[in-house]
Fold each of these.
Amino acid sequence: MKYTSYFIVTKLRITFANEKSNIIKMNKTIFITGASTGIGKATAIYFAEQGWNVAATMRTVSKGADLAKYPNVKVWPLDVMQTESIQSAIDQSIAHFGGIDVMFNNAGYALVGAFEAMSDAQLRKQFDTNVFGVMNVTRAILPYFRAKKGGTIINTTSMGGIITFPLYSVYHSTKWALEGFMESLQFELRSHNIKIKNIEPSAINTDFDNAIEFVSIPAYDGYAVRAHQNMLESYKQAPGPLVVAKKVWKAANDNNFRLRYPVGGLGPLLIVMRKFLPLAWFTGLVRLATEKGTH
Ligand SMILES: NC(=O)c1ccc[n+]([C@@H]2O[C@H](COP(=O)([O-])OP(=O)(O)OC[C@H]3O[C@@H](n4cnc5c(N)ncnc54)[C@H](OP(=O)(O)O)[C@@H]3O)[C@@H](O)[C@H]2O)c1
């Protein structure tokens, strides 16, 4: 009922707005979480430049100054752990742009290091952000997509939702949880014409200080510090976030129910190798690539 009246009111608003300006058109709208930096920001810019409306949401709106320069981008505050901020940003986006076509669950970070060194608070924050945050946003958009009889939910999971590397045990467990959650959720949503798409980037060169929280204790330092450095080196040689933005664009526009979109560097190949090689061979290769200089 709430969203049915939205459709009537916003249709009137758009007709009126179109007569007054060129800013709000019947263009499609993507709603992005974690748009302040990295993959979220690159996706916001890419979609804006293709003519979509972009609801660029972030915890700290002052980080969105670059994005706010685009006439078809609006920046709203949203913390995936605060449900009121999610509903408020969704409502504002629908009211301003006349709708939402794609929900892009992108916000997240990686808690990395020796598991024994991680506090309960750190573990819970990792799951609250990467798993429950995505569930919060997904649950908030579903009534609207059902009323609209369609919509697309795109998630930045990770190649780390399919395969694993050293020191990322907790991060992997959040992304594996998302892969399982979304793979199952697609069944019940299909009858409502709601598509689910998981973008699975390999290493992407974004801001590590923002994206990664590293912890260790002396007993693990000989292994963890060196292996972490090895992996950071591979991030530095990785492609930038534009390659992921283009994959999100493909997923948003291909109009089918394909679930998985691996992207970036060797990631798609590694996923295939993980599927077909014996696990011991695959983990042996991972050790060779990541454990140089440890022990
Ligand atoms: N970079 C990679 O190699 C890679 C590979 C695979 C998957 N991913 C995934 O890609 C996504 C984006 O990561 P990125 O590499 O672009 O890192 P990033 O540049 O650090 O971007 C992460 C974004 O998530 C936001 N965020 C963190 N906690 C949040 C919360 N509670 N509520 C709302 N927003 C929150 C950050 O906001 P603040 O600016 O406020 O911190 C930032 O906008 C993540 O889900 C990550 O796991 C990254």
Amino acid sequence: MTAQPPLRINPKISRLVCSSSGRVVEPHGFTRPIGLCSCCPPPGRPVVIEYDLERIELGTFDRSAGIWSYADLLPVIGPDPSFAADVGGSPTIELPRLSRELGITVLVKNEGGNPSGSFKDRGLAVGVALGRACGAERFCLPTQGNAGVAASLFSARLGLPGCLVYMPEGYQDGLYHREARFFGAEVRFAGANIAAAGRQMRADVADELASGAYVDMSTFFEPGRLEGKKTMGLEIAEDLGPEGLPDWILYPTGGGTGLVGIWKALSELAALGRLDPAVRPLPRMVAVQSAACAPVVEAFDAGLEQVEPVESRGTVADGLDVPGAIMGHGILRTIRESRGAAVAVAEAEILEAFAECGRHGIAASFEAAAVVAALHRLRGEGVIADSERALLLLTAGHLIPLGKRAVPGWE
Ligand SMILES: [Zn+2]
């Protein structure tokens, strides 16, 4: 094991709560990893970390520490800069051409510059650090994309045994498999999709998960990934300032960690007095999905409180191929609290927007292209009004889709 300064639990954590029932979750002194709650029916619901905001005085952020520049609002502190100082810090920039074309202000935050190439690095860096601080020896997760790569990278950075990654059958020798292996992962294949891969994983390593030696890093199965994703919201608020917040934030929504995380960040900053919704309302959060797999959009349109699983018809955007959402209640709550929207775009619209991104010099993945497509839709329908400001979260760059396979339709 490489020498690393000790990771410590942030003493300003006030409590852990169940995202569904609101009941307090016992942290057991953080001597073992925190998983799902035990108050809801098995397997439980996501646990959310709350901070004693009265005790937090935010100074000016020094971005040189990457996402740990926001250590006061993260659950675990003390990592060496070599662990994650290169994570986050993506600038928020305006796209003047698209702004002129649409008669609004279009801002983008592109996450492609993170070490493993996507926004997943934020959540997995914090999730891995938190699990390690709680005594875990190894991390495991099912993945059909960048999350497994990111978890492998941060396991490698801590000198831990290779991350145990389960991928659906058919992912052998694909880009994600090769990337995860590059970062030392042990990759196993099971089932037709990520849900089946996850079931196999939980059966295979049930003992290690039960003892706390391993942490299940599946989306929302532990609270660290949400806290890491939160840093996107902290950066947006810092970059644009309380007066300059966008009216809308459009976010490609699979598991929804980033959507919920950005809203959690903005809410915490409002509670800390850094933002004042009475002066400028917080941004309206838009969940963007593929029409081929749109459980959140369907649940939102139906006025449901929970997201019911759907049958995915398959989408080019791997990150949107998520037919259910264990944090569906939190995603729907975020959209409604923020007076936001949920938009499903057709596969053809995603491919068209992907080509448009190329023409504009925007390094965008398919998930990011879906957000560009949704922007056109919302603007065309007049939902986004003249002169409003819309921020697009571009979760990864173009190299991932282009490195994976020829793009259907135009290549
Ligand atoms: Zn619960």
